[in-house]
Amino acid sequence: MSIKIKPITDHESYKVNNNIVFKDGLGNWNCKNDLSHKERQAFNQYESIVIKNPRFKKHTKATYKG
Predict the structure, then answer these.
(1) pLDDT tens-digit profile of 30-51?
(2) Superkingdom of the source (predicted)?
């Protein structure tokens, strides 16, 4: 199974497979549906490599093998 992450609005919301992950008012990442363990792992990895990296001017799509 592969996990696809697609930016909707950089630093605010991302599509992880068919789920929307968004930053709430307190700065925490939330999702209306529970992400699977693999989806959460992939998003955490994406966050550390892409979202928190100031060198990325525009966030890219990513696919993680799971």
Answers:
(1) 999 999 999 999 999 999 999 9
(2) Bacteria
Distance CA 46, CA 11 (A): 12
- State the Cα–Cα distance between residues 24 and 65, nearest whole angstrom: 28
Are 61 and 4 spatial neighbours (Cβ–Cβ below 8 Å)? yes
**Residue 41 three-state SS:** helix
Domain boundaries, the chain: 2-65
Please say whether the beta carbons of 59 and 7 come within 8 A.
yes
Closest CA to 33 of 48, 43, 46, 47: 43
Report the Cα 58 to chain-centroid distance in Å: 14
Q: What is the pTM of this model?
A: 0.90
The answer to whether the Cα torsion of 16, 61, 43, 51 is positive or negative is negative
